[in-house]
Structure formats: C-alpha cells, structure tokens
Amino acid sequence: MKYTSSHEWASWEEEEVKVGLNNLAKRELENIVYIQLPSLGTALLQGEQAVLVESTKSAIEIYSPLTGVVKEVNLSVAENPALLYEKTLLWLFILTGVERKEYEALLNHNEYLRLIQ
Of the candidates 58, 13, 51, which has an alpha carbon nearest to the alpha carbon of residue 31? Predict the structure, then answer.
C-alpha cells in the first residue's frame, strides 16, 4: 500500500493498481453526497484529476496517483457514496499499464504518517 500527499492510496495487485481515498480525506469532507468517477478506458497522467467528490461541506478533485488507463470503476460507490464510510479501503478505480517504478516512488505508510503529523 502506498499513499500520496493529497490523501489518495494505491495498492498494487497483479499488474493492476486499485486507487482510493484515505480516511483522513473522508473525515475532512464529512458527508459525501456525490462521486463522479472516470470513464473506462481513460488514460490518466500522474497528478491529473480523476474523480470529483462533492460533500455537504465542499467539492474536491481526487488526483490519479499514477499514470495508467482506467480498467474498472467502482459503480457501487458512485451509486451510494455513503459506502466510503462503511469500509476503510474501498477503491474508486483500477488502473492498468502502471510502471512499477512510479508506484514505488509513492509514500510508504511511515512517510505518509510523518507528512500528516
């Protein structure tokens, strides 16, 4: 599991990377009411907007932590954003074609903890 300074997480699983929003970001947003996921087949660059999240408090953009192509999106989260609060590691989308070197350059757990303290 790897992390970004903008509070996304990424998990490498057999040449695919699941991407989600970490608990700190979910707490900051409070009541998420809408999630717009990327389209299947979308080529994303690292740092490019991938997801729009709206809460009763604000709207934020979620950035792709890695360069790759969107293979799958979690439609259950788009249909019911409250699921994000029920599961700790609920993924938003899956990327393929990610370079392992780029993934390894993301923050590890200890680096991320130091960042947010």
Answer: 58
